[in-house]
Amino acid sequence: MHIVSRVLLIGAAWLGFASAGFAQTPPSDDWKIKLGGGVMLAPDYEGSDDYEFKAIPDVEINYRDSLILKNNRLSYNALRAIDPASAWRAGPRARYGFGRDQDDNAALRGLGDVDPSIEIGGFVGYGAGPWSTELSLLQDVGDGHEGLVAELERGYSFRFTPRLGARLAASITYADENYMQSFFGVTPAQSLRSGYAVEDADAGLKDAGVMFAMTYGLTENWSLGGFVGYKRLLGDAADSQIVDGQGSANQIRTGLTLGYAF
Questions:
Q1: Looking at residue 70, what is its pLDDT?
Q2: Cα separation of 252 and 186, whole Å?
Q3: What residue ranges do the domains of the chain occupy?
């Protein structure tokens, strides 16, 4: 599982910008499929100041703009069945969370692993012209962080040429106490194993960030994507012992992807 997680790591929210709507896909009545992958330079854990290269997916399967699988996230726009022309979208969503391995960095030794999670919830969004806004709410129903995460994103998409498109987006994330404690707190048992002081991480805003992505259509089917993102950890996440002192609240990610659409 550890190897699979590294191959698929961080597809969610961040890599989604790189493949959002710019693939040179031929017309299709029902299906739009894009398969690809790439490499990303990112912290080796959330809050780390040590960076490493990671293999990442660039996969999107879209059925009638209603059922959409994008990397580790599956969404269904239930409003499209009611009004296909509506600028609003809403429906259920599921996401696979990759957890964290204590072997990722010496700063995590003794804290144990955070198991992968299955997050279930929903989303609501609105898009008018180049602007889009989306709010999602996801609860872990597996054995991972067992918490609730809410994410708000505001984005703007534009084109420089028919082949070259871009997207700029800002986001903010709220996490409940279970999530925060899993990734940023220290229990008494973890304190004995790691040497860190016992630390309670409370619910609150976890991070805020911006992402810029570009996609260039190499041919009718092949596209090259690139992205760079900055995220600032907030509240108890930024104050955590594994961040403040051992790592950094400033998190940067950048990468390249290559995809084939059909």
A1: 97
A2: 25
A3: 2-261
pLDDT band for position 137 (cuts 50, 70, 90): very high
Q: Tell me what the mean pLDDT of segment 32-52 comes to.
A: 97
Q: What does the block give as tokens for 13? A: 């929210």
Q: What's this model's pTM, rounded to 2 decimal places?
A: 0.86
Phi/psi at 227 (5° precision): -150, 155
- What own/partner pairs with CB < 8 Å and gap ≥ 24 does 189-196 have? 190/110, 190/111, 190/112, 193/110, 193/111, 193/112, 194/109, 194/110, 194/111, 195/110, 196/110, 196/111, 196/241, 196/242
CB neighbourhood size of 190 (10 A): 17
pLDDT confidence of 81, banded at 50, 70, 90?
Answer: confident
Residue 23 pLDDT > 90: no
* E strands, the chain, in order: 31-43, 51-57, 60-63, 67-70, 73-76, 88-97, 117-128, 131-140, 148-159, 164-175, 204-217, 222-233, 250-261
Phi and psi at 6, nearest 5°, equal -70, -35
Q: What is the CATH number of domain 2-261?
A: 2.40.230
Q: Is 103 helix (H, G, I), strand (E, B) or coil?
A: helix
